[in-house]
Specification:
Elements lengths: L2 E10 L3 H12 L4 E5 L14 E3 L9 H11 L6 H20 L27 E3 L5 H12 L4 E4 L1 E9 L2 E9 L5 E11 L21 H8 L4 E2 L5 E6 L9 E3 L9 E3 L5 E3 L7 H13 L9 E4 L1 H7 L1 H10 L1 H10 L2 H4 L5 E9 L3 E2 L12 E3 L16 H21 L9 H12 L10 H16 L5 H17 L13 H25 L17 H4 L1 E8 L2 E8 L12 H16 L2 H12 L9
Parallel strand pairs: 1-2, 1-8, 2-5, 8-17
Antiparallel strand pairs: 3-4, 6-7, 7-8, 9-16, 9-18, 10-11, 10-15, 12-13, 12-14, 14-15, 18-19
Helix pairs in contact: 1-4, 1-11, 2-3, 3-11, 5-15, 8-9, 13-14, 13-15, 14-15
The protein binds flavin-adenine dinucleotide (FAD).
Flavin-adenine dinucleotide binds next to helix 1, strand 2, strand 3, strand 6 and helix 5.
Length: about 600
């Protein structure tokens, strides 16, 4: 007998976006349930480096600058209303996280201080950093959640959204231990299920629970997706095998003097520290496809010149802003590498999915009563995301969704859930239990991941994408020939199978969109169309449900960005002059200037 629970708002996902939306909605008086297949506070938020952009922290900043940086990085695909909201409300994100118990770095007077230089693609220094990272963020989220009235369902996997005449009316999930199904009737469902790094494992910095379910759940319920071809790759550990893909930096980590080299020691891009992630990934893709890579398939990030020119203070800044990266480098490569004396061989590791569920300014999808926030939401970042803005986005849009969803559900009656229809879905999900066949789902999952990295990963082109589609069709066939134990409790093969079904759909969506966009833009880099083509491709690719399948169409982008242009030559002059001085000043003088510039970020007792 299926248990059916009732709530006003059901949140899918226990990361930063989901927990915040759930807690704030409950505080505003809604009856909220949260479901997460991981323990709450896991997901990518719990491994984040804790760097968060804030548009009001630096007097030299203003909304126009922040908007421009976001749009230039997203190469004009960004949704204008979402960008404006983020920039207008970015200051609120830090308040939410501090109220949950995280503390951002401060100077002696107790004022929050940003990392004292602009991260790659930001035109001003606007990124704050938490005193501790990763797990502590997860703990703060757990604390906030368990101190609230939210009904928490940890280690439950949502398999389906339930739809009715009036849009989404609830969701169906499985208790991962008992294998029992449970359904919710909900006036609104908020998807906050994060990204899809598991598709590219092991070449990903993401948690393996991020299989991308949310994109497919939403599509199957009738919601549109956008920009699904975009896939951001940044620096990951190249060896040993157990650490492949773990995040060890991003373009900004290169600092003033860092260089990115191929195996012959040739620079593959100038000034990587000033470039966006998309620009650096494109240079890496070029080097990988010409096979000028190191013994582990990576390129070389050489930070030694920073150390030589700037002295120990450089290491100090790095360790205050990127502690986990240095820790993992030490663990993987050794002490001299962590000391930035020797280069690191880095692979292109999947980090972030800028595309996702299409939403309006209230985070409402194209289906009634279905909302999306966090990494699963699309539109804000267009084709590429600036570093440190994801955390800002999580908390800003979690606040927005809580405000709009709560107001709406207060005037709604509990929706009717057709339990007969849900019973049929349960039967179809149990279909594979007890089947004997040639493949274990985990084998097929590994095949999918290898295929995605090799053919739809950092290096992609028409040939590789067509091959990927053919191999995905074979995988679909092999899914009919799986072996799964018949027992219900703790049946991990069955759970793998259920997740893999959605992963294959998602892989097809990403591949079809990547094939469609015949240009390179942002984090979508095609070796056969290496240039951006505004004449043909200043538009978003939208994915729509079409019967049991999906269809693509393109939407022209609004002209809101027509005045935003890349910095012209004149505008680049001050940065160039600064660059010239930084490169040519004597080391001692440079270090003195730097110390002054670092102000409260590295206090004197920490030099
Ligand atoms: C190593 C690393 C460092 C980073 N550092 C930074 C940084 O310093 N600054 C910054 O701005 N960004 C950073 N990012 C990016 C940022 O951390 C993520 O984009 C963000 O945390 C995503 O939050 P989220 O709430 O959307 O998803 P997540 O935190 O990933 O949470 C998603 C949740 O959904 C659950 N879920 C998924 N599917 C289902 C399902 N079917 N049923 C139930 N539950 C489900 C998962 O279990 C998980 O709990 C970093 C990312 C990584 C990987």
């Amino acid at each position: 007998m299926l248990t059916l629970k009732e709530c006003d708002i059901l949140v899918v996902g226990g990361g930063g976006a989901g927990v915040t939306a759930a807690v704030l909605s409950a505080r505003a008086g809604a009856k909220v349930a949260l479901v997460s297949n991981d323990p709450v506070g896991r997901g990518d938020t719990c491994i984040a480096s804790g760097i968060m952009a804030n548009g009001i922290i630096n007097a030299a900043d203003n909304p126009q600058k922040f908007i421009r940086d976001l749009v230039l990085c997203g190469e004009y695909l960004n949704d204008p209303s979402l960008v404006s909201l983020l920039v207008e409300r970015s200051g609120e994100a830090v308040e939410v996280l501090e109220e949950f118990g995280m503390v951002f770095r401060r100077d002696r007077e107790g004022r929050r201080v940003p990392i004292p230089f602009p991260l790659g693609g930001h035109s001003v220094a606007r990124s704050l950093v938490t005193l501790t990272e990763g797990n502590q963020i997860g703990n703060a989220l757990r604390g906030a959640l368990y101190g609230s009235d939210v009904e928490v369902n940890e280690e439950y996997l949502i398999t389906d959204l339930i739809t009715g005449q009036d849009g989404v009316v609830g969701a169906l999930g499985i208790d991962l231990y008992s294998g029992e199904f449970l359904a919710w009737s909900a006036k609104s469902v908020i998807i906050a299920s994060g990204g899809c790094g598991a598709l590219f494992a092991p070449f990903t910095s993401n948690m393996r629970s991020n299989t991308g379910d949310g994109f497919v759940l939403a599509l199957e319920a009738g919601a549109d997706l956008r920009d699904m071809e975009q896939a951001q790759f940044i620096f990951g550990i190249s060896h040993p095998e157990s650490l492949i893909g773990v995040l060890c930096g991003e373009p900004a980590s290169a600092g003033y003097f860092g260089r990115l080299l191929d195996r012959d020691g040739k620079e593959i891009i100038k000034n990587p520290g000033k470039k966006t992630r998309g620009q650096v990934a494109a240079a890496m893709a070029k080097t990988i496809s010409s096979n000028k890579v190191g013994p582990h398939g990576g390129v070389f990030l050489d930070l030694s010149k920073n150390r030589e020119r700037l002295g120990p203070i450089y290491r100090k800044v790095l360790s205050l802003s990127r502690k986990s990266a240095l820790d993992v480098v030490r663990f993987a490569y050794g002490e001299r590498e962590a000391g930035c004396e020797k280069p690191w061989e880095v692979v292109a590791s999947f980090h972030y999915h800028p595309g996702g569920i299409k939403v309006d300014e209230q985070c409402q999808s194209t289906v009634r009563n279905l909302y999306a926030i966090g990494q699963v939401q699309g539109g804000l970042f267009g084709s590429d995301r600036l570093g440190s803005v994801s955390l800002t986005e999580l908390f800003v849009f979690a606040k927005i969704v809580a405000e709009s969803a709560v107001e709406k559900v207060m005037n709604m009656s509990q929706p009717y859930v057709d339990t007969k229809k849900v019973g049929k879905i349960v039967e179809s999900r149990r279909w594979a239990m007890g089947k004997t066949g040639a493949f274990r789902p985990v084998e097929l999952k590994c095949r999918l991941q290898k295929l995605m990295y090799e053919k739809v990963g950092p290096v992609r082109n028409g040939v590789s994408l067509e091959e990927a589609l053919r191999e995905l069709a074979c995988l679909d066939d092999d899914m009919k020939n799986v072996s799964i134990p018949s027992r219900q409790d703790y049946n991990t093969d069955w759970i793998d199978f259920l997740q893999l079904q959605k992963m294959i759909v998602l892989a097809r969506i990403i591949t079809r969109c990547a094939l469609e966009r015949r240009e390179s833009r942002g984090s979508h880099v095609r070796t056969d169309y290496p240039k951006r083509d505004d004449a043909r491709w200043l538009k978003t690719i939208v994915v729509k449900k079409d019967g049991e399948e999906f269809a693509l169409h393109t939407d022209p982008i609004e002209h809101a960005w027509r005045d935003i242009e890349s910095p012209g030559l004149m505008e680049q002059v001050p940065a160039r002059i600064q660059g010239f001085f930084v490169s040519n000043l004597p080391g001692g003088l440079l270090r003195r200037i730097l110390k002054k510039r670092l102000g409260g970020f590295v206090r004197e007792d920490q030099h």
